[in-house]
Design brief:
One of its GO terms (biological process) is lipid metabolic process. Its cofactor is Zn(2+). GO terms for molecular function: protein farnesyltransferase activity; zinc ion binding. Belongs to the protein prenyltransferase subunit beta family. This protein is mainly α. Helix content is about 45%, strand content about 0%. It has a two-stranded antiparallel sheet. The longest helix has 24 residues, at about 30-50. The chain is globular. The termini are far apart. About 50% of the residues are buried. The structure holds zinc ion (ZN). Zinc ion binds near residues 281, 336 and 346. Zinc ion (ZN) binds near residues 281, 283, 336 and 346.
Length: about 400
């Protein structure tokens, strides 16, 4: 069902009324916001006055951009760069959302490269020979599970991974990102994510973690990096997802979290901001809107009668319009906002957010909401791990056949 252009929210006559009213009190923040609204508004107007074709996700040029990235990655993996497993994950997951297969030899190259990033003592580093860190560990495991071959699964040294996780665990339940490094909610999520998908989780590994994450929820409703820190989209996603994995979401005030995230969708632009009073950014289409499936599911288990059976609790149409009109680079790849350059990070999270906005529910209550042409449809993504739900199922099935390693802290 391709929507007619007239139905687009950004082209309605009253849309301009959604712009910021600064009550005659200009501040640096309000002026920045107005500049972005002006820029986004001129794109919406140009579309209204000149094109009037259904919106198109430029799949082919995005795919070319991603394939080139993967090629370069395997050609020059000696290069010192602290986020190479992330590049692997952003690219393979984006291609998977676009339903573009990765050639076998290329997938094998990625597996071999990630194997070289794995530390002898467990966990993955940002590049070969560097120190292991939880963020690239999460990215490497996600990339390998997205590739999903026997070779990919076999790269992961589960015994050592479990030892690495234990070595980062703190007495208060939190985790350090790396040895000698900082503690924050990202590490709890990365640890819970890789431990659950590779079946190395034990009851004591996450002792106290859920309670520590709950302490990071702010009076605003969102979650900050550590207790007392300002609520932020990325940390909120990490905190809520980790609690879903640990089956302890009830420790949070979910209604207050819902109110916080719902108000992060920008009235005029249609995309999301990461924090209160910040500017719209395409990547928050996943970090913020991606909270909605998790919240929906959590509130559903509490039998909340107000829950919709067809829609997430944000304007799915408005966000798709923002992503399709304002975040596609004409040379392939997606971006933060008009005027910014494309990168693999934004390509991954803009596409992931677009997928969330297109697919509601699953199984018997799958409800699709597609802006633009039918070919815009992406594969769905798992709300907790952000890789394909079929990839999660295959990885869990694979690792469930193996025993949970028996490392202990003592
Ligand atoms: Zn961003």
């Amino acid at each position: 069902m391709a929507d007619s252009v007239e139905q687009l929210r950004c082209l309605r006559n009253n849309h301009a009324a959604e712009q910021l009213q600064d009550d005659g009190m200009a501040t640096e923040t309000s002026m920045e916001q107005k500049r972005v609204e002006h820029c986004v508004g001129s794109i919406y107007n140009m579309y209204k006055n000149h094109y009037k074709q259904p919106l198109v996700l430029e799949r082919d040029i995005h795919t070319q951009y991603l394939r080139r990235g993967l090629q370069q990655l395997s050609d020059s993996y000696e290069c010192l760069d602290a986020s190479r497993p992330w590049l692997c994950y952003w690219i393979v997951h984006s291609l998977s959302l676009l339903n573009e297969p990765i050639p076998e030899s290329m997938a094998s190259h990625v597996c071999q490269f990630l194997a070289r990033c794995q530390d002898a003592k467990g966990g993955f580093a940002g590049g070969p020979g560097q120190h292991p860190h939880l963020a690239p560990t999460y990215a490497a495991v996600n990339a390998l599970c997205t590739i999903g071959t026997e070779e990919a699964f076999n790269v992961i040294n589960r015994e050592k991974l479990q030892e690495f996780l234990y070595s980062l665990k703190q007495p208060d339940g939190s985790f350090k990102m790396h040895h000698g490094g900082e503690v924050d909610v990202r590490s709890a999520y990365c640890a819970a994510s890789v431990a659950s998908i590779t079946n190395v989780s034990t009851p004591d590994l996450f002792d106290g973690t859920a309670e520590w994450i709950a302490r990071c929820q702010k009076w605003e409703g969102g979650i900050g990096g550590v207790p007392g820190m300002e609520a932020h989209g990325g940390y909120t996603f990490c905190g809520l997802s980790a609690l879903v994995i640990l089956n302890r979401v009830h420790l949070l005030d979910l209604k207050s979290l819902l109110r916080w995230v719902a108000f992060r969708q920008m009235r005029f632009e249609g995309g999301f901001q990461g924090r209160c009073n910040k500017l719209v950014d395409g990547c928050y289409s996943f970090w913020q809107a991606g909270l909605m499936p998790l919240l929906h599911r959590s509130l559903h288990t509490e039998s909340d009668p107000a829950l919709s059976l067809t829609n997430w609790m944000f304007d799915q149409q408005a966000m798709q319009e923002y992503l399709l009109l304002c975040c596609q680079s004409p040379t392939g790849g997606l971006l933060d906002k008009p005027g910014k350059s494309r990168d693999f990070y934004h390509t991954c999270y803009c596409l992931s957010g677009l997928s969330v906005a297109q697919h509601f529910g699953g199984g018997d209550i799958l409800h699709e909401m597609m802006v633009g042409v039918e070919e815009n449809k992406l594969n769905s993504t798992h709300p907790v791990y952000n890789i394909g739900p079929d990839k999660v199922a295959a990885a869990i099935l694979h690792f469930r056949q193996k025993e949970v390693p028996k490392t202990s802290r003592n």
